[in-house]
Automatic annotation (TrEMBL), chain A:
This is PAT complex subunit CCDC47. Belongs to the CCDC47 family. Residues 437-479 have a biased composition (Basic and acidic residues). GO terms for cellular component: rough endoplasmic reticulum membrane. Residues 480-490 have a biased composition (Basic residues). It comes from Eleginops maclovinus (Patagonian blennie). It is found in: Rough endoplasmic reticulum membrane. InterPro entries: CCDC47 (IPR012879). Residues 1-23 form the signal peptide. Keywords: Membrane, Signal, Transmembrane, Transmembrane helix. It holds the Pfam family CCDC47. One of its GO terms (molecular function) is calcium ion binding. Residues 71-81 have a biased composition (Acidic residues). Residues 47-81, 428-490 are annotated as: Disordered.
Automatic annotation (TrEMBL), chain B:
This is PAT complex subunit Asterix. GO terms for biological process: protein insertion into ER membrane. Signal peptide: none annotated. GO terms for cellular component: endoplasmic reticulum membrane. It comes from the Eukaryota. It comes from Eleginops maclovinus. Keywords: Membrane, Transmembrane, Transmembrane helix.
Length: 490, 101
């Protein structure tokens, strides 16, 4: 409702503003036109063409024209036109009369008779009437660009309303089909984090016109599950047009966060070839732990289109049991990626210069990205097709809890993690040293300032002495250490 | 089938991307906002009608793409600015806009 009002008010203002700005202009122009007409009529009688005949005819109508001013002007107009016609006719008649007269006469006697015909022709040349330029016209048609713009805006608003409603209907359809399953598995379904008590809101949390969230919590084996319905931006006309060039589909992203004891240490991912390549480049944990290129899924009975990224073969064997393979094969077209990791920390962060990084915080997570069938032309009915995938998610949660690596696998996994940590420390070693150095210098400077700031000379002297003693002690300690190392080396 | 729900283990929802930069995910509304303001300034100062119209479009696009966390004051101010740019251009010069071709 709020957003509808927000659109309506400015749109109304805009539509009202246009006629207001135009109104004044209209009146001025109209007056001018009428005046011009009157001018023409007043001076019509003085034009050369009607001079001879008009002079005679004018005297006749003038006594008749005395009674009133308005009808007089009209009569003059009529008479003027009548006069013109009469004049023309009269002129023609006289001309032809003259011609006949002269033709009876001797040709040699009169010269230049042919010339008399020419002025007549020039009178008969058609009048060229130029069209008034568009910006001087006073009609709605000249504002066609503005009308186009406003129509475009109206089309945008219409598309916004339609797109918003469609997204909302799709989200509601998804929720209705999954509600039962979620409520039977989680104690808390739907939470926006703002209410005081942990009570299920029982509905989706709308983040955007095209993104809906749902938080579920309160189950064995996991801390919580965040479901994000990432729909296409149907409310934005530009996006709709861009999608005509590049088709895209709606996505459902699910992130399950697990407790420490719920998952053993392994990193694993399966999905379409393109998404696997992208994830391996982007994700911190996949790039560090799954160094090899994605393997084809055909080895484990999956369709050719899917590939697998894994820390070690044992992990793949453990995850890809029959039921999992069955799930994935049946719904391969809807699966974009599935990512299980105990070292998940999000995408790689761009390191800034001069900033020592701690190892990023990791969280044991299962991430699923599903494509909604329909590739953009989704209808609410298609949401039911995603229900088996949610079943797969629940099954995975239980499975991961039970999955434990054997001894060798565990040793390998621990070694991997130690290796990654060491690499990280080495890379940042120089940075950390610099940081430590700067910190030490800062401390010294702060102390010196404090000593300087002391007003009492007595206290100043005492502080200086204390600082000197501390420095001496440090140097002695270092010397002792060096001696010890030398002794040990020997 | 035993009940797998554990009300005791409920964890409250914490909005995930408040720490990480939300503009990294989709900078469109911010860009459009900025563009809208620039165009409306151009339209007002240089008395160009087409600038003012593009500013109106930009503010509409920014509104359509906005996140719910963004406050409405920003949206309303950019709307009002672009509409005032259009109205001012027409008050100063009521003639219709001529196409660039």
């Amino acid at each position: 409702m709020r957003s509808a009002y927000l659109i309506l008010i400015p749109a109304l203002l805009l539509l009202l503003a246009l006629p207001v700005s135009r109104g004044r202009y209209n009146d001025e122009f109209d007056d001018g036109e009428d005046l011009a007409d009157f001018d023409d009529n007043d001076f019509a009688e003085f034009e050369d063409m009607n001079d001879d005949q008009a002079a005679e005819a004018e005297t006749a109508p003038s006594p008749r024209a005395l009674p009133s001013s308005q009808p007089e002007e009209d009569e003059d107009e009529d008479e003027a036109t009548v006069e013109l016609e009469d004049g023309m006719d009269g002129f023609d008649d006289s001309e032809t009369q003259d011609q006949h007269m002269y033709s009876n006469y001797d040709q040699e006697e009169f010269e230049g008779i042919g010339d008399m015909e020419k002025p007549g022709h020039s009178m008969k040349d058609p009048l060229i009437i130029h069209t008034v330029p568009a910006h001087l016209q006073n009609s709605w048609e000249s504002y066609y660009m503005e009308i186009l713009m406003v129509t475009g805006l109206l089309a945008y608003i219409m598309n916004y309303i339609i797109g918003k409603n469609k997204n909302s209907r799709l989200a509601q359809a998804w929720f209705n089909s999954h509600k039962e399953l979620l409520e039977s598995n989680f104690a808390l379904v739907g939470d926006d984090g703002t209410s005081k008590d942990a009570v299920s809101t029982g509905k989706l949390n709308q983040e955007n016109e095209h993104i809906y969230n749902l938080w579920c919590s309160g189950r064995v084996c996991c801390e919580g599950m965040l479901i994000q319905l990432k729909f296409l931006k149907r409310q934005d006309l530009l996006n709709v047009l861009a999608r005509m060039m590049r088709p895209a589909g709606d996505q459902v992203q699910i992130k399950v966060t697990l407790n420490e004891e719920d998952m053993d240490t392994f990193v694993f991912a399966v999905g379409t070839k393109k998404s696997m390549a992208k994830l391996q480049k982007e994700m911190q944990d996949l790039s560090e732990f799954c160094g090899d290129k994605p393997k084809s899924g055909a080895k484990y009975g999956l369709p050719e289109s899917l590939s697998i990224l894994s820390e070690m073969g044992e992990v793949t064997d453990g995850v890809m049991d029959n039921k999992m393979v069955h799930y994935i094969t049946n719904h391969a077209d809807k699966i974009e990626s599935i990512h299980f990791s105990d070292q998940f920390s999000g995408p790689k962060v761009m390191q800034e210069e001069g900033q020592p990084l701690k190892l990023p915080d990791t969280k044991k997570s299962l991430l699923f990205t599903f494509n909604v069938p329909g590739m953009g032309n989704t209808s609410p009915k298609d949401m039911d097709a995603l229900l088996p995938l949610m079943n797969m998610v629940i099954y995975s949660i239980d499975k991961v809890k039970k999955l434990r690596l054997n001894r060798e696998g565990k040793i390998k996994a621990d070694r991997n993690r130690a290796r990654v940590e060491e690499n990280f420390l080495k890379q940042t070693h120089a940075q950390r040293q610099e940081a430590a150095q700067t910190r030490r210098e800062e401390k010294k400077r702060a102390e010196k300032e404090r000593i300087m700031a002391e007003e009492d000379p007595e206290r100043q002297r005492r502080l200086e002495e204390a600082a000197q003693r501390r420095e001496q002690k440090k140097i002695e300690k270092k010397q002792m250490k060096m001696k010890q190392i030398k002794v040990k080396a020997m | 089938m035993s009940d797998l729900r554990r009300p005791a283990k409920i964890l409250r929802y914490k909005a995930p991307s408040t720490e990480s930069n939300p503009t990294l995910e989709d900078p469109t509304p911010d860009y459009m906002n900025l563009l809208g303001m620039i165009f409306s300034m151009c339209g007002l100062m240089l008395k160009l009608k087409w600038c003012a119209w593009i500013a109106v479009y930009c503010s509409f696009i920014s509104f359509a793409n906005s996140r719910s966390s963004e406050d409405t004051k920003q949206m309303m101010s950019s709307f009002m600015l672009s509409i005032s740019a259009v109205v001012m251009s027409y008050l100063q010069n009521p003639q219709p806009m001529s196409p660039p071709w």
